[in-house]
Design goal:
The complex is a heterodimer of chains A (442) and B (492).
Chain A lengths: L7 H11 L4 H4 L21 H13 L8 E2 L12 H6 L3 H4 L11 H18 L3 E2 L6 H16 L4 E5 L4 H11 L5 E5 L18 E7 L10 H10 L3 E6 L18 E5 L15 E5 L12 E5 L5 E5 L6 H4 L12 H39 L13 E5 L6 H6 L2 E2 L2 E2 L10 E5 L6 H12 L1
Parallel strand pairs in A: 1-12, 3-4, 3-5, 5-6, 6-7
Antiparallel strand pairs in A: 2-8, 7-8, 9-10, 11-14, 13-14
Chain B lengths: L18 H4 L35 H12 L22 H7 L2 H4 L11 H18 L3 E3 L5 H18 L6 E5 L5 H8 L3 E5 L9 H7 L4 E7 L11 H10 L3 E6 L18 E4 L19 E3 L11 E5 L2 E5 L16 H14 L3 H19 L15 E3 L2 H4 L5 H10 L6 E2 L9 E3 L7 H20 L1 H5 L12 H6 L12
The chains are: A alpha/beta (442), B alpha/beta (492).
Chain lengths: 442, 492
């Protein structure tokens, strides 16, 4: 096998050196009753040729993306990934290294993460970012735990029902054994969050909203975050479409305490939902309450600028049960990818790209309205929106024609049965948009 | 003449500034699709100025990352014997399979009939991991090892709630990874530390003494972080089970057991695996990983949802499991990583057993060859890794950190140092099965040379590393005055 380099001779010499007569002898400390009774029931090793053909066959059971147009968002977005980024990701010095425990030979990873922290903070208008979390959902759960640590004596958090329902599911899983209370806030007729039910609530550590929210609606963060802080709670703003902040006023500038969400849009392939990128930012004064790795700038013995993992005293390998989180590995390479993507776009490019995303979605929205669809929520949107197709529209039949017209919402919001969440990014040409409209017009 | 047999660390190293120190407004590194729809302006109050990101050309970005990557050491660069991290070779064909457009462009909420290829990979990978571990059912959802531990602890919590009521303590040996107590705490368990015995393993007596009806169970790592098989695991499991507890195994070190140990027969109820260790997927400088969880038949109902199920018409995703602990990831976990592990298992097939045999052989060979040079705190045959200390070098005022830094000059990544924390000045060496005898001999030679230098020229160690782009970095100041965000407007 090509991944196992020893020759027969090597085995003999090594066994001799160790002073045993067989490899089995090395395992003599394992009691008979703990051993396997049979050989592994796996096939013969595949050759590289066999593997290629097997995997190609499986990949063919997925849509042919030249033929299929999917209008799907909801936390995972189709954006064009430049060839330059795919090429850079093959630098094996970056992808075959471990967590940068030895900074002298890990400056590539460390500087890349420092740059990631800086670029993401800039994008979201925040002061500090960590080196990443697993994904948007776990980042939100961790943000709420962090708020409870900061608030100390409080035991309630509130989350908007307009937050991605998959994220809310994860938050519930994380919170179930904790004894803390999670309130859900309804949404208003215009698709934004209703903070009304919080009046008089005194035990609130944090309130989380998402913007753009699950319905694609842009929340009025300026007033929402202010109202949350007036209640004595931390304002947590999450997002699932990071690219929106190429155009939208960033939550940090509007006073958010914690901003977290999914960064898959920033140059990371969709990959059936993972790996993605959990982005996590906060204000300087809360840094020591943050979960996850942090990279900081320092100097070496020769006074050269360099980077190290820092503030590890928050983390599990030092603090064990008193750590701010159990997180160890994060999504390092995905964070680096996001930095490459942001650097490739620049401030000018990301603004232009974000506008193009919104314009594609607005165009589609306008044409669908003309075709007799209704748009239930009136709030402004970015590249996603909720639509109700005319009653004669056949979803299944459209899917059969390789056009996937959004995600049915009834499974998450029974009151929105018959409504769909549609997404149009820069990847959709006008012809594809018009083709979807034609299906509705039939 | 120059000695070409040792990798050494000299070469062409370019300087490179921070991204924003190279930026100039109006540069462009991205090709935007042509605008074919009109512009729909957004309310002014909702819009921002351009984000403060530097504008760079495509070549600026390419050179930037090419240069900084050259400051990094990876498995492709050289031997990386980082204990408990299993830095094995990351086969290139795995990368190729995961990059097939059918997978990379797949949206996770595609209609099921359009996702059959992805679902089949997940279903079959679960089956492979069940077969390899001996356990009954698997969830691929956890995104990393610690996420898998957390999942395991949530399963403990849910199981006890359904059966004997809430329990609030958990036993964890002092040699465990820090993630173990941190994960248990997040699920409401208070860790009770078990001291390892003089042989470096957990003694059944210590378990008996601490196990009671308030205790949810135990978290063990097997082989443990000293690289030793937990000899009494079977007896320990019986003690825990007899008092209604469950046994969790941290599978970070599974690379020693493939095809050899049946985890269910050792009494394990829940086990997490690191695909980025045992199953060859790259670590990416700190992720993305993947931490599947394997459980017994009895605990299967608690696995996270949704689960991949096989039905007459094909594969499907089901959330119809009443006892499930719920959802842990936005979607189904790190699918891109799963493809790589799946490819690896298909490529290795039945030969996975040879992986563990070779990994254990390599570790014992190093142990044997260096045991006169560095002190072995537990002088007995090891599994896939062995732990030395700096005790013999202390006489010359040389510590583990100096040895590790000097090793960089010889072109090797250092072992895991100062862990497990129960061993003073620990150096935990895990060569993996992928290193050839020649490479291992070079590593041994470098370690021996360093031991000699410690005695004769300790200054070489104190001032190491010498040939890396950075010399030792000031970590104290970094922590005291954290500088975590650069200034996008100007030079640092």
């Amino acid at each position: 096998m090509r991944y196992l380099p020893h020759t027969q001779d090597d085995f003999q010499v090594m066994l001799q050196e160790i002073g045993v007569s067989s490899i089995e002898e090395l395992f003599s400390s394992i009691p008979e009753q703990c051993r396997r009774k049979s050989n592994l029931q796996l096939d013969e090793p595949c050759t590289e040729w066999e593997l290629n053909s097997h995997m190609r066959k499986l990949a063919k059971q997925m849509p042919d993306w030249d033929e299929c147009s999917a209008f799907l968002g909801a936390g995972n977005y189709e954006h064009y990934i430049p060839a330059s980024i795919q090429h850079l990701l093959q630098r094996s010095e970056l992808y075959t290294s471990y967590t940068p425990y030895q900074p002298e030979i890990s400056q590539g990873t460390l500087q890349s993460i420092f740059e990631y922290q800086t670029l993401v903070s800039g994008l979201l208008g925040m002061e500090v970012s960590n080196a990443s979390m697993y994904d948007g959902a776990s980042a939100l759960a961790e943000a709420l735990f962090m708020s409870l640590r900061i608030a100390r004596r409080k035991s309630t958090v509130a989350i908007s029902k307009a937050i991605n329902p998959l994220y809310r599911e994860v938050v519930k899983t994380y919170f179930r054994p904790s004894g803390f209370r999670v309130l859900e806030l309804p949404y208003l007729e215009n698709g934004r969050t209703d903070l009304g039910p919080l009046q008089g609530e005194e035990d609130l550590a944090a309130v989380a909203v998402q913007s753009p929210n699950f319905f694609g609606c842009i929340e009025d963060l300026d007033s929402t975050q202010q109202k949350i802080q007036d209640l004595g709670a931390l304002a947590v703003t999450c997002f699932s479409e990071a690219l929106a902040y190429g155009l939208l006023n960033p939550p940090g500038k509007l006073g958010a305490d914690i901003v977290c969400g999914e960064g898959q849009s920033l140059g990371i392939s969709q990959s059936y939902g993972g790996p993605g990128l959990g982005i996590f930012c906060t204000r300087q004064k809360y840094t020591r309450n943050m979960p996850g790795r942090l990279v900081g700038q320092t100097r070496d013995k020769n006074d050269n600028r360099g980077y190290v993992l820092t503030l590890a005293t928050r983390e599990q390998h030092i603090r064990r049960e008193k750590a701010t989180s159990n997180i160890c590995s994060n999504q390092g390479l995905c964070a680096t990818t996001a930095a490459m993507y942001l650097a490739s776009l620049g401030g000018t490019g990301i603004r232009e790209l974000a506008e193009l995303n919104r314009d594609k979605a607005e165009y589609l929205k306008e044409k669908l309205l003309e075709a007799g669809c209704s748009i239930p929520f009136s709030s402004p949107t970015f590249n996603e929106f909720v639509v109700k197709f005319p009653s004669n529209f056949d979803y299944e039949q459209t899917v059969n024609k390789n056009i996937i017209p959004g995600i049915p919402l009834g499974q998450y919001y029974p009151e929105l049965a018959g409504h769909y969440l549609l997404c149009a990014t820069e990847t959709k040409g006008r012809e594809q948009l018009d083709n979807l409209v034609k299906e509705v017009n039939k | 003449m120059k000695d070409y047999s040792s990798p050494g660390t000299t070469g062409l190293v370019m300087h490179e500034s921070l991204l924003w120190e190279k930026g100039k407004q109006g540069k462009k590194g991205y090709s935007l699709p042509k605008r074919d729809v009109e512009h729909y302006p957004l309310d002014k109050e909702l819009a921002r100025e351009n984000p403060p990101l530097p504008d760079l050309s495509e070549l600026d970005v390419i050179r930037h990352y090419t240069r900084v990557s050259q400051w990094n050491f990876g498995v492709d660069t050289g031997m990386y014997p980082l204990g408990s991290c299993t830095m094995k070779y990351n086969p290139k064909t795995n990368e190729k399979q995961a990059a097939l457009p059918g997978f990379t462009n797949a949206h996770p909420l595609l209609p099921l009939q359009m996702s059959q290829g992805a679902l089949r990979i997940m279903f079959e990978l679960e089956g492979f991991l069940a077969e390899i571990t001996g356990l009954h059912a698997v969830s691929l959802q956890p995104a990393a090892g610690a996420h898998g531990e957390y999942t395991g602890m949530r399963i403990f919590h849910a199981y006890h709630q359904d059966n004997s009521g809430t329990k609030n303590k958990i036993l964890i040996p002092d040699s465990a990874h820090g993630t173990n107590p941190a994960s248990a705490t997040m699920c409401g368990f208070k860790p009770v530390t078990l001291k390892s015995d003089s042989q470096g393993v957990i003694s059944p007596d210590a378990v008996k003494e601490n196990m009671d009806s308030e205790t949810a169970g135990i978290m063990v790592t097997n082989p443990n972080t000293l690289g030793l098989f937990e000899d009494h695991i079977k007896e320990i499991s019986e003690i825990i089970h007899s008092q209604g507890g469950l046994v969790y195994c941290d599978g970070a070190n599974m690379n020693a057991f493939l095809g050899i140990v049946d985890m269910q027969d050792t009494g394990i109820d829940v086990l997490h695996i690191n695909l980025h260790k045992t199953f060859s997927t790259p670590h990416g400088g700190g992720g993305p990983g993947s931490g599947p969880v394997c459980v017994t038949r009895e605990l299967e109902p608690y696995l996270p949802i949704p689960r991949v199920v096989k039905e007459n018409h094909g594969y499907s995703l089901s959330s119809d499991f009443q006892s499930s602990i719920g959802k842990l990831h936005s979607f189904y976990g790190n699918f891109g990583v799963m493809i790589k592990a799946y490819s690896y298992i298909l490529s290795m097939g039945q030969e996975l057993e040879k992986v563990s045999q070779t990994a254990v052989l390599n570790a014992n060979y190093i142990r044997q060859r260096l045991k006169e040079t560095f002190r072995l705190p537990y002088d007995r045959p090891c599994m896939h890794e062995c732990v030395f200390t700096d005790e013999l070098q202390e006489n010359y005022k040389v510590a583990t950190i100096d040895i590790a830094k000097r090793l960089l000059d010889y072109g090797f990544h250092p072992p895991t140092i100062y862990f497990p924390s129960i061993v003073h000045g620990a150096m935990m060496v895990e060569p993996t099965e992928c290193e050839s005898k020649d490479e291992i001999d070079r590593f041994i030679q470098a370690m021996a040379q360093i031991a000699w230098e410690a005695e004769d020229e300790p200054n070489l160690l104190w001032s190491a590393p010498h040939s890396t782009i950075m010399k030792r970095l000031d970590e104290t100041t970094a922590a005291r005055h954290p500088h975590l965000t650069g200034d996008l407007k100007g030079p640092e």
